[in-house]
Amino acid sequence: MTTNQQIEDMTIRHAVYLQRLAGGYTKKMIPYFEELESNLMRLVDSDSYTAKSRQIMLAQVRQLHTAATASFSKELINGVNDLAIYESGFTAGVITASSTAIAAVPAAESVLLAVNRARLDAPMNNLTIHQALAKFGNNKAVQASNVISDAILRNLTKDEAKSALVSLLNVTKVQAEALVRSSVNLTANTARQATYLENADVIEHTKYVAKLDSRTTEICQEYNGKLFEVGKNPASTLHWQCRSQAVAVVSREYIK
To answer: If you write DSSP's letter for every residue of 194-228 in order, what string do you get?
Structure first.
């Protein structure tokens, strides 16, 4: 196996770890949403569920949602920051192990700055991970309060109101998982490319490598195998929940 083939193989196999890591972060968010659901059900069961106290109840719904998503967001941000530092070291290790170069690990501060500036694509409208989490939390708080407001104004029973909330929460969990997975892959690729830039004298360019299966998008199929200047590979940014990887291609003088 050649140097660049080995780098690509190690990077692709590592992507499986990233998917598992995202799954672990998703499991960590479950308790927050379970507690939120429990609190919302109790709130609907309370005496506040009346037209007279609708505004008070809506404020409580928003408060519960905001608290839950804030806790979930803090957990994810801490996780992706740790991942960014780990990923930069791992990437440098892959280059060192596969080539004759001794790759440098970028400063933690520069890696974290790059991750904080990185942008998620649609449907988050080119927002940073921090911004996307804030928008997600605000939107879900508004949606939940709208569900309750509608239930009260339509004179729905408490059970009907709770059923509507549960339906919304189920959608929220699915969307939260998508946000987690997108954030993890964006973080990993951003940290990886920060490491490539740190070793620009070693790396000739980077290769776009898509995960090819039944879920691969047309745009990733189109980009798969294309070469880019160091630091300009669009992997993980072309669409929501992108699983593509930016893989280093080292210069000939560093090939074993």
So the answer is: HHHHHTTTTEEEEEEE---STT--HHHHHHTT-EE
Radius of gyration from C-alpha coordinates of the chain: 22
pLDDT in tens, 162-202: 999 999 999 999 999 999 999 999 999 999 999 999 999 99
Which is nearest to 61 in space by CA: 40, 84, 82?
Answer: 40
Strand order, beta sheet including 245-250: 227-228, 203-209, 245-250
Domain boundaries of the chain, sorted by first residue? 3-202
What is d(CA 98, CA 85) in angstroms, rounded to the nearest whole number?
A: 21
- Minimal CA–CA distance to 76: which of 41, 120, 110? 120
C-alpha–C-alpha distance, residues 183 and 87, integer Å = 14
* Res. 122 pLDDT band, cuts 50 70 90: low
Give me the sign of the Cα torsion angle 189, 112, 83, 185.
negative
